[in-house]
Predict the structure.
Amino acid sequence: MVAALSAAAWFDFFLTRPYQTFDITASADIETAVLLLVVGVIVSQLAAHARRLEVITVTDAAHLSRIHRTADLAQSANSADTVVDHVRQELTGLLGLRACRFEYGTLLGQPPRLQNDGNVTVGRHSWDVDAAGWPEGEIELRTYGNGHYLGRFMLTPGAGTVPSLRARLVAVTLADQTGAALDTSGPVT
């Protein structure tokens, strides 16, 4: 916006009569100054939109890379614990967690839960993560293999971190890959 205003002003100052003043007397010069302003605003908005799209593209590529690394590991790992440890580290970085641990097959308590759709529930109520941040305490992210509950990741949010819905959906996908690895090889006891 500032560049567009500057272009119109300096056009008036340097290129219209009377020169070196901010007076425009000819209607053609007024039209040119207005067009410079309009085109400058449009170009600046397009540039801002392109920057936003670039950030989204880079973020989505990083998310896809996490999913592919985990899928490759789940297929090649000798132990499901290797996949669990890898996903635990991925979740910590992805969601900005202070801590993350995995519990095999236990369902003690009723902590807030990260659902398959990326939303969080506390008890029977939906929690607006985007507006309110993470709920207090640990949040569970369950893993299933062939429809059977196998364990859960217990997520401890970092201070002030609010992951996007896309990041939360990637976290659910990573947990699903863990469930598939656990279902195939079973946990090490």
